[in-house]
Design a protein that fits this description.
Blueprint lengths: L1 H10 L2 H19 L14 H39 L11 H19 L9 H6 L12 E6 L5 H6 L8 H4 L13 E5 L4 E5 L1 H5 L4 H18 L7 E7 H6 L2 H22 L5 E6 L7 H5 L4 H4 L16 H12 L1
Parallel strand pairs: 1-3, 1-4, 4-5
Antiparallel strand pairs: 2-3
């Protein structure tokens, strides 16, 4: 079944359909063109004219694809330049050995990101054929922001997500720190998306509210400057099962309000409406959770265990949420 689906996906690949369409139009021009007559004038009677027409049909999509590639490459370089020129840390820490290493690693990562095409490295020729034309630059990839309290499991969720990290061969399977001066934010570059793992204190803002709030706002401004048309494509709100089980109601309510405030600030500062994904982490802390899902295969475990709410519903009735949770419980 999987092989059949792969063949189906290859047949309906946009590049395959484009080639088939060009060949079909070329045959129409060559064989039917000479029969077209306008007041005894046959515009496609000459073979030279038909060759020129076929060449135009073939080159027009190629020119369009080349222009889009140029724009994407230019946008990719613009993002790299904006991040590289962003102000870094100031004060005594700016010249420390750690800060210097962060800067060097960041510049090396950006040098690779300027040229890399995500999705270009595939395990087999068959897979490369099926994904023909799907390679993207950093500019084209979706960007997602992780927010959550310290210890919520954001980094662990990313490392074990099954995503591919194109910089792993050169820089290791670790996040890139120091991007645009954001020393308290980890940037994860994968072949599918860019994930920004923000410091937990950005979310709670409990250690030093003024400093944390200023750093959070500076981070949002960097996003807006780097990708003005679409700063981010979504936000992942992480909540630990441990926090849900252990926090008393007096602590749980302020925690929820802090998460809500950060999402609202994203809307306000970036000026975009984005999907919000609530990710409950450390579910294996629940008694029986691992045993309950132990019988599932790899493909079944890769599916999302949750539910989605329709876009445009400004308010969710508690009864509707309870109903969805009961369906999950099953």
């Amino acid at each position: 079944m999987k092989a059949v689906f792969g063949v189906f996906k290859l047949i309906f690949n946009r590049w395959v359909l484009l080639v088939v369409g060009i060949l079909a139009l070329a045959m129409i021009v060559w064989w039917i063109g000479p029969t077209i007559s306008i007041s005894n004038f046959r515009p496609f009677e000459s073979e030279m004219v038909r060759w020129f027409q076929i060449a135009f049909i073939a080159l027009a999509p190629a020119a369009r694809a080349g222009w889009r590639w140029y724009k994407a490459k230019k946008g990719n370089a613009a993002i790299a330049d904006a991040l590289l020129k962003a102000p870094g840390p100031t004060g005594p820490d700016a010249k420390s050995e750690e800060a210097t290493l962060l800067r060097q690693r960041f510049e090396e990562a950006l040098g690779l990101l300027r040229q890399i095409r995500f999705g270009a490295e595939r395990p087999s020729l068959w897979t490369r054929l099926r994904t023909l034309g799907s390679q993207q630059h950093l500019y084209n990839l979706p960007w997602y922001v992780f927010i959550g309290a310290p210890g919520a499991g954001k980094t662990t969720a990313l490392i074990n997500s099954g995503l591919r990290f194109p910089l792993a061969d050169r820089l290791g399977r670790e996040a890139v720190r120091g991007v645009g001066g954001t020393r308290n934010c980890d940037w994860w570059f994968t072949e599918e998306a860019v994930f920004l793992d923000t410091a937990g204190r950005y979310t709670t803002q409990q250690s030093d509210r003024d400093v944390d709030a200023a750093a959070w706002k500076s981070f949002l401004q960097l996003l807006k400057k780097s990708r003005p048309r679409r700063p981010i494509n979504g936000v992942l709100v992480t909540i630990s099962v441990g926090d849900l089980l252990q926090q008393p109601p007096a602590e749980r309510a302020p925690h929820a309000q802090a998460l809500r405030s950060r999402v609202q600030e994203l809307y306000k500062e970036l000026g975009v409406r984005i999907p919000v994904y609530v990710l409950v982490t450390k579910a294996d802390l629940l008694a029986g959770f691992s045993e309950y899902f132990s019988t599932l295969g790899k493909e079944e475990r890769a599916q999302a265990w949750g539910f989605s709410l329709r876009y445009g519903k400004d308010r969710l009735e508690p009864a509707a949420l309870t109903s969805e949770l009961q369906r999950l419980e099953g």
